[in-house]
Amino acid sequence: MMNRRQFLQAAAGTVLLARPFNVLSQSIDLIIKGGRVIDPSQRVNAIADVAIAGGRVVAVQSNIAAGATEFIDASGKLVLPGLLDVHSHYAQDEDGPHVCLSDGVTGWVDAGSRGADQIDEAVAIARAAPQPARVLINIGREGLRGDGDTMELELADVDAAKSAISRNRDYIVGVKARLTEGVAIDDVEVLRRAQEVATSFDLPVMIHMGQTTTPMSTLIQQLKPGDIVTHMFAPPPNSIIERSGRILPEVLAARRRGVWFDVANGRTGHLLWETFDSILAAGFWPDTISTDGNTSSRSAASVVDLPNVVSKFLNFGMTIDEVVARATVNASRVYPLFRDRGTLNVGAPADVAILELREGAFEFVDNYGNVRTGDQRLFPSETVLAGVRVPRV
Known about the structure:
Number of domains: 2
Shape: globular
Structural class: alpha/beta
CATH topology of the largest domain: TIM Barrel
CATH superfamily of the largest domain: Metal-dependent hydrolases
CATH architecture of the largest domain: Alpha-Beta Barrel
Largest sheet: 8 strands, mixed
C-alpha cells in the first residue's frame, strides 16, 4: 500500500495534462497553490495549481505564474473536486448543509428523511443550502419512524407521494424505501409501491437493504437501471453476498443492467468488517461512498465525516485515486444535478475539497463496535464553493 510520503513523491515532476490556458489573459480570483491535485474524472494525480475566476475553474497547471485576489497554500495536501454525498440526512435540520460543507461536501442528497407529510420541510432546507442539494422522498408518508417507516402498510401511500413530488418536482430526485425487517412490514409490496411512484416521474428508487424479510435475490430483481442499492456492506441475512463469500448472481446481474451500489456507512447494522472484507475480496467494489450522516455524525465514531468514511477504503483495499473517484466523479453520475460536478475540468464549477492525508495509527469502527487500526486517514482542511473559500464550522 502506498503511504503518504510515497504518494506525495510519486509524480512530483509530473506536468498536469489539463487543457492549456493562458491565465495571464484574465483576472484570477483565487489560486490554490502547490497541492497534489487528484481528479479521477481526468485521470490526473500530480502536483499543480488550480486557478479560479468567476466561480469556475480556469486552469489546472504546474506553477501558475499569475496574480490573484486570494491564494491558498495547499502544499503537502490533496486538492480534490468537491465531495458529493449521495446518501445523507442533512435535510433533517438547518445546520446540516453547513456542517458537511466545511468537511468538503459541496453537494448532497438527503436519502429519505421525510415522507409526503413533511417533505416540504426537507425541500426548504435543500433550497436554502449553500451547496447544490436535493432530497429523496420516503415512501412512508411520515418519513423516518422509530417504530418503522412502513410497518403499517397504509403509510406506503402512493397517491400522497405522487402529490408531494408534483409540487416539489425540482427538488425531489428519487424515492427511498427502507426494507429492513422491523421497518417495512411487507418489503416486496413496499418496494412495488415505491417503484410505482418513481416510474411515474422517471425517477430512481433507492433501497435500504440488509436484514430484510425477503431474500435480496428476490428484491433486487425489482430494480431498474439507475436505481440504487444502499448499505451494500450490511451483513447477512439477506446481504448482497452469501455466507460462502460469493456475490449473489442476481446482484451481479443488477450491476450489469445499471443498478448502482452505494456504501452509506451509517451507525447501525450497515457495515460489518467481516462482510466488508468478503465483498471487497470478491472484487465487488462500491460505485459510490457516502456517509448516511447528519449533524451529529462528527461525534459518531463509525461515521465522523465523509473523508473518514473514504479513509476506511483507502486503508483496507483501494487506492487514493479509486476512493476519490467514488466520492466525486462516480457520485456525479448518479443524479443529473451533479453532472457538471465531481471534476476540476476547465470550465467546471469551482467546488474544491482540500484534505490532509495524515500518517499514524487511526481507529476505524464498523457498526457493531469492532475497531480496526489503519495507518492513513483523510482530514478536512479547506473547502471552496463556487470559487469562494468557506469558513470551517
